[in-house]
Amino acid sequence: MGLLMDTLVNTEQKGSIESITRLQATCCLACRGTEPRKVSPSQRAYSMTMPNGHGASGMLKITLMVLLYYPLSIGLTFYQKWFIKNYGLPLFCVTGHYFTKYAVAIMVRYALELFRQRRVRLSIRDQLRWLAPIGICASVDIGLSNWALEYVTISLYTMAKSSSILFIVAFSLLLHLERWRPSLGITATLIAIGLFLFTWQASQLDMLGLLLVELAAASTGVRWTVSQLVMQRDDQTTALRHPLDMVIHVQPWMVLAILPLLFVFEGGELTLTRIFMYNDVYQPMHVIFLIVTGGVLAFLMEMSEYLLLVHTSGITLNIFGIIKEVMTLLLAHHLNGDRLSNVNIFGLCLCLAGMTVHGASKRHSKTAPRTSSPTSLLSNGDSDRKFLLSVDSESA
Fold first, then answer.
1. Cross-strand partners of 205
2. How far apart are CA 291 and CA 90, in angstroms?
3. Fewest CB atoms within 10 A around its CB: which of 63, 81, 347, 350?
4. Is 335 exposed, middle or buried (0-12, 13-18, 19+ CB in 10 A)?
């Protein structure tokens, strides 16, 4: 597992060398009188991960991001499982998290703007085009995930949610964020078979819970591929490269998307008495405290996710997430007594093999010679911008 993480992190750094080479080619053409093409955000991101050409600092940077992301994500998973088991109303709980995240993000932005310049604001038109799909899919993803925790164990939830990489690969190909390679097919096949074996004749399997998790996984695919496209855009007017700006702009759309689900599935229970009941005892302050605490944890985790995304890609973020889920499985097995049969364990091994193939493929793609000339990377046009994103995404 440690070798897989090193492979993924090192691969990110090798992409920086080629990004710097393209930047040098841009400068050379500018000196000859050719108008240089605007540098894409993903190029700047990779350059920042490797300052002064040294990969060690960039490797440390991404490693620290992962170490920040893991405890927040694992902790929130167990916290939500514990809280929902004692409280119920998972969609109401998630809605409370959304309002908490938005309030915290607004306060942080206000504090930053007191000492720095005004942060970016997007128009409603740009938000409808780029951020509404992210917010809606994120809301469906998180809402269904929390709902599923009522029906399935953490072990089944974490592994079923790992199928999100299949959807991320599909949407990455569709949006030209990733190029087709045979290794992608091998990776997807290994993970799909592994997930099938993991749920094969599982005594803990609940079909409704599994369906909810898979719908959440599909929403994850749309969410992170479109987020990558937005955060790595070269359009200065619509790019949101800072995690705080993404959280602030996406949260309102997440709230709008979750409210219909909340009123359809839990509307009949939403009375003042019920929403403040915890363990059959009326405890309003205790309930508010627990929901706000979960919202703060969710805010910090979402910030760490976007931070990783802007420096890597949706696929690599998902790979790190699956490694995290393996840790969650082991912890759940130890704490909750979740049962894993030999078939389930074999399925888990196949999933890990798929992750390893992905990491090895990325490392190989960085050592293979490139055939593209520098001038081909400097032309204008929207299709060429997508090509740049496609090339850069291979270093993830």
1. none
2. 11
3. 63
4. exposed
Q: Where are the domains of the chain?
A: 2-393
Give 223's contacts (C-beta < 8 A, 6+ positions apart). Answer: 134, 137, 138, 141
Q: What single-letter amino acid sits at 284?
A: P
Rounded CA-CA distance 342/334 in Å is 17
Beta bridge partners of 278: 281
Do the Cβ atoms of 164 and 220 come closer than 8 Å?
Answer: yes
Q: Which tokens go with 106? A: 């607004």
The token duo for 201 is 């004749």
User: Which residues neighbour 105 within 8 Å (Cβ) at sequence distance 6 or greater?
Assistant: 244, 247, 248, 251, 299
Nearest C-alpha neighbor of 25 from the set 317, 375, 276? 375
Residue 49's closest CA among 94, 101, 11? 11
Are the CB atoms for 94 and 292 separated by under 8 Å? no
**What is the separation, in whole angstroms, between the first and last Cα of the chain?**
17
* Structure tokens belonging to residue 307: 């931070």
**How does pLDDT run along the chain (396 residues), one tens digit per residue?**
554 445 444 544 444 444 444 444 444 444 444 444 444 444 444 444 344 344 567 677 778 888 888 889 888 988 988 898 889 888 899 999 999 999 999 999 999 999 888 888 888 888 888 788 888 888 888 778 878 877 887 767 776 777 777 788 888 888 777 778 887 778 878 877 876 776 665 556 678 888 888 898 888 888 878 887 877 766 555 567 788 988 999 999 999 998 988 998 888 889 999 999 998 899 999 999 999 999 999 999 999 888 887 776 666 666 676 677 667 666 766 766 666 678 878 887 887 788 778 767 766 665 555 444 333 333 344 433 333 333 333 333
- Residues with Cβ < 8 Å from 76, sequence gap 6 or more? 294, 297, 298, 301
